[in-house]
Amino acid sequence: MRRILGIALAVLLVGGVIAVIAIGGKKPEGTATKTVRGVIGSEKSEFFRDPDVVKALADKGYTVKTETSGSWAMDQLALKEFDFAFPSSSEPATEIEAAAGVKGAQNTKPFFSPLVVIARANAAKVLSDHGLAKMTGKNTGTLLLGPFLKASGEAETWQELQGGTSAHPELGGTVFIKTTDPTTSNSGALFLATASNVANNATVVSDDAGIERTAPLMKKLISVQGALEQSTDGPFRAFISGSGEPLILAYESQVANLLQQKQDPGDMVVLYPDTTVNSPHTFVPISDKAEELGSLLATDPKLRSLAVRHGFRPTEGVAEFTAATAPHTAYLNSGLTGIRQVGAPTVKVLMALAARAKG
Question: Which of 152, 176, 204, 226 is the 20 to 30 Å CA partner of 107?
Fold first, then answer.
């Protein structure tokens, strides 16, 4: 009898283990299975540090560790130490793939962000009053690149732009937009791509003749700035703190993130250049461990909503951005109305323009 009871008990125990495996034996939600390392543009740092993003990635089986670099400098890194690279546009992705030995990798563009110029209210008013910008509201408008580049080419000062008056004595020196280093940073490089298009009769610079035509103006745009930073993060934070230059190049995502977090924008005015090169953040898988991560960032509803919360426009979900930023249309041009989208030069041409601009 004891033997029979023992056998029966053993059967019940085995059955219970099988039931646990079948019913509740799945990996607990939130337990990551893979740790991947990536190099990213600094404008995505807050996104990957966000505890909600960390949890959403863990729920999908990932722990993501990141380091930052200028997008155009990533190809100079020891890329084999990383599982992925995530530059701020598609142009440097080609160089990264070649340097990492993964040419033809299945890259992904989960989200994008247009470049904007953020201005102090007094600077925006002067630009508007003198035909270099067109205001569409108190805190938003359009930067007219043609007239602005003409003033930059002539090295006009704020006082000259005001006709010698002293209505805004706090504005001094040459009129310029503070950018990042175009030889290493995506935003600085794409600013030159946009400016050179306007200066080249609304045509993408594609040859040595185009470089020669536009290089003198590109040099004026960069040389007047003095020391250049490697990312938009520093100049943007300086502007928000009340210091820095009156005109700063930034990503719209930085502004949208600030507004959605209900931080005080101060007297910030957001000017969208009337010509722009979009910045699709491009995920380049380097190791097999990160192969699916780019697609996950693009398609997972939770991660997409978190990207929007950080100011990015999902490539396949612009309506999500529009809905989330509806309370902030006093600053944002959600539909990019009145903006001409242009292509960027090849990497070779763009880097030649950047080198001439700094030289």
Answer: 204
Beta bridge partners of 271: 117, 141
Asked whether the predicted pLDDT for residue 243 surpasses 90, the reply is no
Q: What is the pLDDT of residues 157-186, one digit of tens each?
A: 998 888 766 678 888 899 999 999 999 999
Q: End-to-end alpha-carbon separation of the chain, Å?
A: 95
Q: In this predicted model, what pLDDT tens digit does every residue of 298-351 receive, in sequence order?
A: 999 999 999 999 999 998 877 899 999 999 999 999 999 999 999 899 989 999
**Number of neighbours of residue 132 by Cβ within 10 angstroms:** 23
Exposed (0-12), middle (13-18) or buried (19+): which is 7, by Cβ within 10 Å? exposed
Whose structure tokens read 């950080």?
Answer: 310
The C-alpha atoms of residue 287 and residue 307 are separated, in whole angstroms, by 24
Strand partners, 118: 248, 270
Query: Angle formed by the axes of helices 186-199 and 347-358, to 10°?
Result: 90
Burial of 191 (0-12, 13-18, 19+ CB in 10 A): buried
pTM for this structure? 0.87
Which of the 8 DSSP states describes residue 246? S
- How far apart CA 88 and CA 344 sit, in angstroms, is 14
Q: Report CA Rg, the chain.
A: 25
Provide the token pair at 96: 């990264």
- The one-letter code for the residue type at 221 is L
115 near 190, Cβ under 8 Å? Answer: yes
The pair phi, psi for residue 70, each rounded to 5°, is: -60, 135
